Amino acid sequence: MIAPRRFLPSVNSLLALEAVDRLGTATAAAQELSLTHSAVSRQLKVLEDQIGVQMLVREGKGLRLTPAGAIYAASVRDYLQDLARASLKLRASGSRNMLNLAIHPSFGMHWLGPRLKGFMARHPDVIVHQSTRIEPFDFEREKFDAAIHYGLQDWAGVNYLHLSGDRVIPVCAPGFLKRPEMVPNALMAKPLLHLESRPGAWESWFEGHGIAADRRRGMLFDQFASLTEAAVLGFGVALLPEFIAEPEFGRGRLIPAYSGYTAVEGAYFLVWPEGAERNRALCQLLDWLRGSL
């Protein structure tokens, strides 16, 4: 249910508040919004009167938000960003059905992307919007139809569709090693590359091969893309998932540093909120994925 109109300020007033909060003066806000100084001041006065709370204090030539005003401005900024994103998606989609997916960037690019091409060819009336999310989020707040989740089935309040297990392999640039290592403990002497979202991955890999390994040191990356490029450039040995490693082997940019894949505990799932009304585009995607897995 939408709140009563008296609690719904105009977008112009909210834009004025957000700009003053970010820029610090009504003059700067007026320039950015292509308004006069008096028009911005009037919008702010209308907003304070409508809400019934003082949100701004004048300090010299500038304006400072009260604590209550600062909290409100942060919420307003999120609302305006959501509104802009919704408008952009609608403009991009036109009359077609929209499907909003939250994806892991590497899995979305290397595994999901090629498959979505087939889905969209079969359903040309559907347009799929993709945004990156790494951690679980609140579907009520983020307004995605579904998301890619990696790990265990530990995201509360969602349905799961298993997409792919996960197998990893040590890789390096051609020429980094004189020959692929025949025994896994030989890799302990090599520079190892690490991923922020998978702490302990190397330790688990060594332990899976019967080797006790303490915390291994080395370069740290926040994305598989940068981790992969570091391996290509010869900075060290990376532990990559199969869906990234295989295309790189085919291009000749990387080679196995140790033969054979190792299964890891995590898996990739498509998740969507329990009890939510599924739009037609999501139902079509679920049916298509189930038929292609």
Helices and strands, with pairings:
Elements: H1 11-23, H2 26-33, H3 37-51, E1 56-59, E2 62-65, H4 67-93, E3 97-103, H5 105-122, E4 126-132, H6 139-142, E5 146-151, E6 158-172, E7 194-195, H7 201-208, E8 220-221, H8 224-232, E9 238-241, H9 242-251, E10 255-256, E11 262-273, H10 280-292
Parallel strand pairs: 3-4, 3-5, 7-8
Antiparallel strand pairs: 1-2, 5-11, 6-9, 6-10, 6-11
Helix pairs in contact: 1-2, 1-3, 1-4, 2-3
CATH architecture descriptor name of the largest domain: 3-Layer(aba) Sandwich
CATH homologous superfamily of the largest domain? Periplasmic binding protein-like II
**Share in β-strands:** 15-25%
Taking all Cα atoms into account, the compactness measure Rg is 25 Å
Biggest pleated sheet? 7 strands, mixed
Residue-averaged pLDDT = 88
| Helical stretch tally | 10
SSE sequence, one letter per element: HHHEEHEHEHEEEHEHEHEEH
Helix/sheet category:
alpha/beta
CATH topology of the largest domain: D-Maltodextrin-Binding Protein, domain 2
Number of domains: 3
Total number of strands: 11
Q: How would you sum up the global shape? A: elongated
Unreliable residue stretches: none
Say what oligomer this is.
single chain
- What is the CATH C-level name of the largest domain? Alpha Beta
Quote the distance from N terminus to C terminus: 39 Å
> Could you estimate the helical fraction of the residues in percent?
40-55%
